[in-house]
Amino acid sequence: MKILILGDVMGMSGRKALRKNLSKLLDENKINFAIINGENSSDDGKGITKEIAEEFFSLGIDVITSGNHIWDKQETSTYIEEENRLLRPANLIEGSPGKGFGIYLSKDKKYKIAVINLMGNVFMKKTEDVFKKAKEISKKIILKKNVDFSIIDFHGEITSEKMAIGHFFDGTSTCVVGTHTHIPTADTRILDKGTAYQTDIGMCGDYNSVIGMNKENSLKRFFKEKDAKSHFPSEGEGTLSGIVVEADVETGLAVKISRIITGGSLEK
After folding, report:
1. Do residues 155 and 133 lie in contact, with contact meaning Cβ atoms separated by under 8 Å?
2. How many Å apart are CA 144 and CA 242, to the nearest integer?
3. pTM of the prediction?
4. SS3 category, 82
5. 155 among known catalytic residues
6. Do the Cβ atoms of 260 and 240 come closer than 8 Å?
7. What are the structural domains of the chain?
8. What is the pLDDT of residues 19-78, one digit of tens each?
9. Which of 69, 155, 180, 182 is catalytic?
10. Beta strands in 120-235 (DSSP E)
């Protein structure tokens, strides 16, 4: 079983990179299931629309995860109730539209794959306790009992929360990846009990930027210059950043994890 997980799609640059490179990635790596974080994929880098989500599905993405920008487009709260392949963080305030996790079939319909979306508590929007929610979900999603594989996207600002969640799910999940900070970390590995892990898998977008935003304008904002505008995405050539996890069908645990850096300035 081979699972592709790609980081936050950042604006038009990220969407163009996906159109250009995804098909080849799926074919060359013989991917059985593909996940992407889409919470920054709109033109302004804030939120996702129904049109964008459906384009991702048409390109071969099986599930879209998200994070703190999930409600930045008004239409999303309605669409997410209709489309169970679009997830919001499971520990959002109780009563939020949509679902925070789901069970899906692999592309060949042979295996059940759980995808769980969580969001950190530190420096993020108001959420329920992520560790309490993780424990609750771990009792519902049981590897090799009601699912064959399970993937956690932890959308968070700080590395300690992400690493703690990785260790919590070690041995009970196929993979735990971090998203949100848009910079791929160098700790890609398999943890002691067999769970693939990376603190942050980066973004799909233009790395000649400030985490995907136009660098000139970002500098103006940091220096508090009067002509600085609201943040807007950089539109140079995008990089696809993420991982491929190869998992054992008997245990559901990882046997190999490989970084994916394709296209744009980061690959160069």
Report:
1. no
2. 25
3. 0.96
4. helix
5. no
6. yes
7. 2-267 (3.60.21.10)
8. 999 999 999 999 999 999 999 999 999 999 999 999 999 999 999 999 999 999 999 999
9. 69
10. 149-155, 175-179, 189-190, 196-198, 203-204
